[in-house]
Design goal:
Number of helices: 13
Distance between the termini: 59 Å
Helix content: over 70%
Order of helices and strands: HHHHHHHHHHHHH
Oligomer: single chain
Strand content: under 5%
Shape: extended
Largest sheet: none
């Protein structure tokens, strides 16, 4: 049995340092984010240095971090939101990198062993009947000969390709079409449209200058991507030429109008959920987007107004 004591200690030390840093007056989002991204590598090399498994240490640290993030998400909301986006980005990049590296390795194997591979279909039969997983193959790469390793890689390739192609082709004929995804997409579009309509209607109760009203309506319609490319270039040209022609007073008017409209949109979503007129998942998805839009209006650091 693996002793998980060193892993927990490493993860706890890093967590304690990170929490002390985020609660101090020296906390800087960029520095904290950099440290956050380097944490898995730091833990891995420290674990290897004390001769324990670096991979298990990183996994343990990830479990500790999940509970840490849940109980400290409001201590620095900007940092937390940025961290989530970076995690999603890094996940996509690393997952894609795995297949790129695998493709390069496979191409080299096919070129160097083309005569063996295409001279006999034995490897194909072995692949169809089963093989060890790709991860296990690479884990024993140093314990087997290069020729056997290349053979297993080709076998695993057949298994992976068949596992992707066969279900894709057969399930299309064997399974009924699931319309839930299409129905949900249509429902989300309807809710967004009605929400934006409520926001635009709320502007009628405000005494706005024509220039400000036109800009605010354009911003609200952008939530449902109803602005044409031509209208975008018109707005872009006007803003580039003279900041859309708005005075400082009109800029404040624009901010108040946007907040009033977004507040009406949030109230609409609240009423939908209160009266059970839409699913909570759909409302939560749209509500989160609405709050992000509202943060662009409220946060002076974004300089969007």
């Amino acid at each position: 049995m693996v002793n998980d004591g060193p892993f927990i200690i490493l993860a706890f030390i890093v967590m304690a340092f990170r929490q002390y840093f985020v609660r101090s007056t020296s906390n800087v989002i960029s520095s904290q984010t950099l440290f956050y991204l380097l944490t898995p590598f730091l833990i891995y090399f420290l674990a290897e240095k004390i001769e324990v498994s670096g991979i298990i240490a990183v996994v343990t640290a990830g479990l500790v971090h999940n509970s840490e993030a849940n109980r400290s998400r409001f201590s620095s909301p900007r940092q937390m939101h940025l961290g989530i986006q970076l995690i999603n980005l890094m996940t996509e990049v690393l997952n894609s990198a795995v297949f790129v590296i695998f493709g390069i390795s496979l191409a080299r194997i096919l070129v160097s062993h083309s005569q063996i591979l295409f001279g006999s279909l034995t490897w194909l039969i072995v692949g169809v009947h089963g093989a060890v997983t790709l991860a296990m193959t690479f884990s024993i790469a140093n314990q087997i000969s290069l020729q056997l390793f290349n053979f297993i890689i080709v076998v695993e390739t057949v298994v992976i390709i068949l596992s992707m192609l066969v279900p894709t082709i057969l399930f299309k004929f064997l399974l009924l079409i699931d319309g839930d995804a299409e129905i949900r997409t249509t429902e989300l579009a309807r809710i967004r449209h009605d929400m934006v309509t409520k926001g635009i209607e709320s502007l009628e109760a405000m005494a706005l200058s024509p220039a400000v009203k036109a800009i605010v309506i354009y911003d609200l319609r952008d939530q449902i991507r109803k602005n044409t490319l031509g209208s975008f270039f018109e707005q872009w040209h006007a803003f580039t030429a003279n900041k859309a022609g708005l005075t400082k007073l009109q800029g404040g008017e624009q901010r108040r109008a946007l907040m009033h409209a977004l507040d009406a949109e949030r109230d609409y979503l609240f009423q939908l959920e209160k009266n059970h007129l839409a699913s909570s998942d759909d409302i939560d998805e749209i509500y989160s987007e609405l709050l992000l839009a509202e943060s662009l209006v409220l946060d002076p650091r974004n300089q969007m107004l």
